[in-house]
Design a protein that fits this description.
Length: 114
């Protein structure tokens, strides 16, 4: 069980789920894949997740300008697994110029793809 202070919030859960299915993903890939998260917010979220021991950056120290390569730790895998049932199905409101606001149900498949 994940300690209470590391229970993933929805945005962190989405990021952990994306990293689980795309190990080695860069900040930009995660920002786009986990729901168009602002890269600045994502950077803070990943720093916090790294501090909590949920993710680790495995980019080569010999490539100073290379993008980060994020991987889940064992603790991150547990936190992500706890979050997955909450991410399997969710609703969001979308606005169409033609018909106005509408509720959209999103069901995520086994591979994390909507």
């Amino acid at each position: 069980m994940t300690p209470p202070n590391t229970r993933p919030a929805p945005r962190r859960a989405a990021v952990l789920a994306y990293i689980a299915t795309h190990p080695g993903a860069s900040n930009r890939e995660i920002a786009l894949g986990a729901g168009a998260i602002d890269e600045g917010q994502l950077s803070k979220l990943l720093s916090r997740a790294e501090f909590l021991g949920l993710v680790v950056d495995r980019r080569s120290p010999h490539s100073p300008g290379a993008p980060r390569q994020w991987h889940l730790t064992a603790q991150g895998e547990l936190a992500g697994a706890e979050a997955m049932p909450r991410l399997d199905s969710w609703s969001t409101t979308a606005t169409s110029p033609a018909s106005g606001p509408a509720t959209v149900d999103v069901v995520v498949g086994a591979g994390g793809e909507a």
